[in-house]
Design a protein that fits this description.
Length: 315
């Protein structure tokens, strides 16, 4: 009887995990909530051992990134890149280089630190999701980086508009600053829309341009983390990501379909975050300590203040 009860209990756990995972494919669950849900289930021991979370997460992350490519307007992204090429390139590579040195200085796990740097440099969770498979990051490394980014995103959503008004920034200037200094596109849109329509348009367009830099950064990341092997792991999903952008550009008559794929991909990415959260344990969080969060905060302060000074005095 005890054996049958145990089996029944495990079946209930498996069902709860699957139901919540599927629920993440709906708009009812946001990205941070999905990550917390996964972590909570892992803490309570409700994660099925029969599921290879690492393999499943890597595949679904790759698929979601490819789908997000259909949401990139190539014309707008190229124009925005030309207009803000200097500040985009400088902010991305300076953040990655600074992150590399700080990761060594704080003795943080190399891949975790690099993912936090990539998320800060480009576009938050999407960049982390794209770079993680390219460097063969583990679930706990990816999840810690995502957690740091989501915390700072939440802060930026409320703090940036307040600072913008205090400094009496123009709509255009605030839009540029939001696109450069706020991690995720969703938070960029939220902060910029609270500031004004022109700020929203500027921020969204420039953020699209930054999203294109996922492609070269993923390839560079694969080179940097190839390890002792002479062979480079080619992140094929990035090639398909490029192909998705090209299809949306070459065949513009199917924008409704592309938008549908883009929206589905965003929800698949939310489910990925649920799976990543399910791979986190309390022990792993304790072992990591506060250093990853300190790294994320320092990088964020540097990119926020330096870009703000440039926008206010040199643009």
């Amino acid at each position: 009887m005890f054996k049958s009860f145990t089996n029944y209990s495990f079946q209930k756990k498996d069902s709860l995990f699957i139901i919540l995972g599927l629920l993440c494919l709906t708009p009812l669950i946001s990205s941070p909530v999905a990550l917390i849900l996964g972590f909570t289930l892992a803490t309570l021991g409700f994660v099925p051992t029969s599921i290879d979370l690492s393999a499943l997460t890597k595949k679904t992350l790759a698929y979601s990134i490819v789908g997000l490519g259909f949401g990139i307007n190539l014309d707008e992204a190229i124009v925005a890149t030309k207009d803000g090429f200097g500040i985009i390139v400088t902010s991305i590579f300076c953040t990655l280089i600074l992150g590399w040195f700080l990761t060594k200085a704080f003795k943080i796990d190399k891949k975790t630190g690099y993912l936090i740097s990539a998320g800060t440099a480009i576009c938050g969770g999407s960049a982390i999701a794209a770079v993680a498979p390219a460097i063969n990051a583990k679930n706990d490394q990816t999840s810690l980086a995502l957690a740091v980014v989501f915390i700072l995103n939440s802060v930026a959503l409320f703090v940036f508009p307040v600072i913008g008004h205090l400094l009496e920034m123009s709509q255009h200037a605030f839009g540029v600053w939001s696109a450069i200094a706020i991690h995720d596109t969703s938070s960029v849109v939220g902060a910029a829309s609270a500031y004004g329509d022109e700020a929203l348009l500027t921020a969204t367009t420039l953020k699209l341009a930054r999203a294109l830099w996922i492609i070269p950064v993923a390839f560079i990341s694969a080179l940097l983390f190839k390890g002792d092997s002479k062979k480079i792991t080619v992140p094929f999903f990035i090639l398909f990501y490029c192909f998705a952008i090209f299809i949306a550009y070459a065949l513009p008559d199917y924008q409704v379909l592309y938008q549908g794929i883009f929206n589905i991909s965003k929800q698949v990415l939310v489910m990925c975050l649920f799976l990543i959260g399910a791979g986190i344990t309390v022990k792993k969080v304790k072992d990591a300590g506060v250093k990853p969060l300190v790294l994320g905060v320092l990088l964020w302060i540097v990119i926020s203040t330096s870009s703000l000074v440039y926008i206010l005095y040199f643009m």
